[in-house]
Specification:
PyrdxlP-dep_Trfase_small; Aspartate Aminotransferase, domain 1; mainly alpha; transferase; 5 helices; three-stranded antiparallel β-sheet; PyrdxlP-dep_Trfase; 126 residues; PyrdxlP-dep_Trfase_major
Length: 126
């Protein structure tokens, strides 16, 4: 039987990271953020890749129509200081963008990001 040792620093860092999720309030905040962004995205006429009942409320994956470009949208939002996931080849091939709900966004920041996304979508549809 072989035994393996683990770095104490690594184990301690993992324990500290897991403590962040002991508070039920953090989960509620993640769910609230997901619901807020989901509603805004649906109101824009955009589609989520997975329906809510089949998705984890951590990341929203948004499928963009052919007239939209995940790279252009991601670049545009990044220039405005908003971080979404769009750069991987997998996301670009599928023309998807992802918004993570784990970050502690202020409501005002979320609204600004979603307004910027909506303006981009409306600009293309005009």
């Amino acid at each position: 039987m072989e035994s393996y040792s683990q770095s104490w620093n690594l184990i301690h860092a993992l324990q500290e990271a897991l403590k962040r999720f002991e508070d039920e309030h953090k989960y509620k905040k993640i769910y609230q953020t997901y619901a807020f962004i989901e509603k805004a995205v649906n109101n824009m006429g955009l589609q989520l890749v997975s329906p809510k009942e089949h998705a984890a409320p951590i990341i929203l994956t948004i499928a963009l129509g052919r007239e939209l470009s995940s790279k252009e949208i991601g670049d545009s939002l990044a220039l405005q200081g908003f971080i979404i996931h769009y750069e991987s080849s997998y996301l670009q091939q599928n023309n998807w963008v992802q918004i993570a709900c784990l970050n502690h966004y202020k409501e005002r920041e979320m609204k600004r990001m979603l307004n910027s996304l909506q303006m981009y979508v409306e600009q293309v549809h005009v």
